[in-house]
Amino acid sequence: MAEQPEGALSVYRVLDLADIKGAYCTRLLADQGAEVIKVERPEGGSPTRSIPPFAGDEPHVERSLQFLYRDANKFGITLDLEPPDGRHLLKKLVETADVLVETYPPGYMESLGLHYEALKEVNPGLVMASITDFGQTGPYRDWKGSSMVHCALSTTMISSGYSDGAPINLPGMPSYDAASLIAATSIMAALYQRATTGSGQYCDISVHECSRLGLYPWMVPIYSYGLNPGSPPPPPEGRLGAAIYPVYPCKDGFVRIVAITPPQWKALVRVLGEPEVLRLPAWQEFMYRIANAADLYALMLEFTTKYTMAELFEAGDREGVPIAPIYSLDDFANSSNAKARGFFVEMDHPVVGKFACPGPPYKWTGTSCSVRRPAPCLGEHNERVYCQEMGLTKDDMAALRLAGII
Fold first, then answer.
1. Which of 122, 168, 201, 281 is most buried by a 10 A CB count?
2. Which residues neighbour 225 within 8 Å (Cβ) at sequence distance 6 or greater?
3. CATH code, residues 245-333
């Protein structure tokens, strides 16, 4: 294999004390070369390990697909933070760390004497990010949330689902992943600034705020900046997906078409062979198409069903209108795009065995961004970190293990 360039973050060490709210944040940093050490409780490990689905439909701490994906590329140790010896070990780890990411409830780290003000005494250059549901301060700081709650509060869910039914939650963990992405960006900005000032800083990440900005951002400027004095408020959002972003059947499946602007609509008409009925002037008006979405859908079926997903995608790319095949998981894994990008990387996990792990969502031209190792087994790198790096003996390890600290 050709030698890969170093990752952009390969000089940094990250301590990961995050559950599902921040696991993707540290995965993003690890993909770019950072040495990420997952710090988990000795009994059962990270809560992410218990989230289904599981590989082979077998519940097990090493088989959660959420953990296998979001914690790939990391090293893993166990440590109970509550005993004094556990807090001492974490502070020793902080001495050589650049970043610490945690997702405990507000006030928990402070109750242990492990809040930022205490840790920066140990390491003034530390960048610490706390990811919580509603932030560290304010009237909602102690409220509990979930990815679905934040998806709803972000107003994203109001536009998800059919117009005659209830709102529908998005699949996966989009709110937590939005928070992770913004947290990772904040951490990189803080590291960049540290190169100038020499000082670290604290990042307070609210999932509620991040999901609002990361999932449905255009509603913020519409309400905040789009109103003139005395003008009426914008119309309420609704579930208009079938009218604006319709899904159409074709020869071998389905495609989603986004033809909103006049050039996109004209390009779509060209893709479908310039049918006379779609060239009528009225159809060129976006609001007319929304008002008559049901009639337009019936007309479109006559033309989309003549083509395959690939034919429509390639024609849309050529003419200038977004047309996306709607893949099953198998279709996506075997698609020419996923294969050409090398998106899936084969991992060999001690418990799960060989499997295809999704790689980074982007590629860099000057530095490496890749998946290099599977998610760690629980406590897999205890000896590497505690003995080889920190100088503990095997007798020390045995005593700590007996006390339930590691």
1. 201
2. none
3. 3.30.1540.10
